[in-house]
Amino acid sequence: MMTREQRELVLDPGTEGHPPPTVTAVASPRPSRRRLLVPLLVVLLLAQMAVAMVTTAVQQTPTIDEPVYVGTAAAYLHDHSLRYNPEHPPLGKLVIGVGVALADPHVDRPLASDQGVMGRHLLYKSGNDPWQLMFWARLPVIVLTLLFGLVVFAFARELVGAAGGLTALALYAFSPDVIAHGSLATLDVPAAGFLLTSVWLLWRARDRPRLYLPLAGVALGAALATRMSALAAVPVLVVLAGVSVWTAEANGRRAGAWNDRRRALLRAAAGAGVLALAAIAVVWATYLAVDPRLRWTPQQHVPSVSGLRGLLVDLLPLPEAYRDGMRIQFGLETRPWESFLFGRVYTGSLWYYLPAALLVKTPLGMLVLWAAGAVALLAVRRLRPAAPYLLLAPAVLSAAAMEGTRDFGTRYAVFVPMFLAVAAAGVLALRWRWRFVATGALVLFVAVSSLRTFPYYLPYSNEAFGGPAKTHLRLHDSNVDWGQDLGRLADRLRERYPGERIWLVYKGSGVPSYYGIDATDPRTVPAREVRGLLVVSDSKVAKAKGRLAELIDGSRPIDTVGHSITIYRR
Fold first, then answer.
1. For residue 91, how many other CB atoms are within 10 A of its CB?
2. What is the pTM of this model?
């Protein structure tokens, strides 16, 4: 049947002695506008996201973690060695390595034994252009982030239609956290995106388990092979795999295909096993892709882990390098990390740190839609089957992250804006007359808030907390200041303060002298000698004590750079 827009009705009245009148469908030369509108809006949303991420990637200098990942990717390509950065599995760095291979940097021999030193040497002391190398290293993550946007759209569209898909994609595409970390050569967005993809495929497995269960296992394995924190979601996804198979079996029984509940239960268990086996296979394949001989001699101390954690590590059917990486991660959790929240400097962790940080760094309209979408998933009968798929995994991952000792930023919960963007689409299934108008207004509010922070996405905070200019008063580290503005600082000093004496306290992995910043650490000389410009990263300001606190107290702030670095006059 042709649609109303595609046909014209031509009535043949007929004449005496001829057949009765007939209706002839004539194809319209113009395709349906509605069919073209949805793909066009998808392209526009992803295009603005791409522009935001590429612009950010081009303008930012290396953040604290990036040189390690880029250097490790180069070691994978040139040495096929697993010895660097064992605390994170290889897949995310192999993704980054695609860009590194395209940049084709010069790699000095021998490689430094310290992974941080090795990464900085590759960027700044091997004759490479760090701007060019970092852009190419970030580009594969940008592409992957855009592809995950299609997963968000497809998942939400299957739940509530095209309007829901567009709503979810808009929330994803304008999320400051997703843009900020999706434009970096880091592992947070890839791991979260692979998890969301696995859950979406498990949802689809309710209809075709034989096709989608193995694919879901591959996506889960990709998440596990990118960040070990994804392990917390494995029990949830294994259960969801069984639920999907059971649902498929139940649908078949209604059609008379299966009558044995015991057999259905066994099939559900087998489906969960298929998911787990596929995930394990992907992890092994990732390590084999780096080194087919799986040579592994740790270069750093690998702590012993006892108790239930130690037993878990020992029993995992994964490569020894992976399990040693887990031991290193557990060792990092025992360190007394210093953190900052709402003006308070503390050692250790606060259970409410991540919820508080998300409250600050999430657009207000997005918070409203997340909450309403979660309610809709539970209240609307036809959406209830999707609730465990969209809410359980982020809930478990959030609980695991809140138990951690490193209160360093919302990047540890970047899966939240991904999963809840899909959940938010459920608002459109509510029986409320103004739901489309209200949702559209809130999405517009989110878009305006996100666009206003361009291109400073890392230090974003919403309007209730003063915007990006005030984030450093409440949060620190990757929430605001991750070393990304060293290049912007160099430009500002050349343009506004040429020839002045510079005293610099910088938090980051960049090398100031490479960017033309001739500076001295003011903490190495008596305070009376510190005259001129005192330049301090805002994370250092937040936790300043002793000599640095005295220097800041005796100075006058005169400028800021990227909402992450403050310039004082002494």
1. 27
2. 0.92
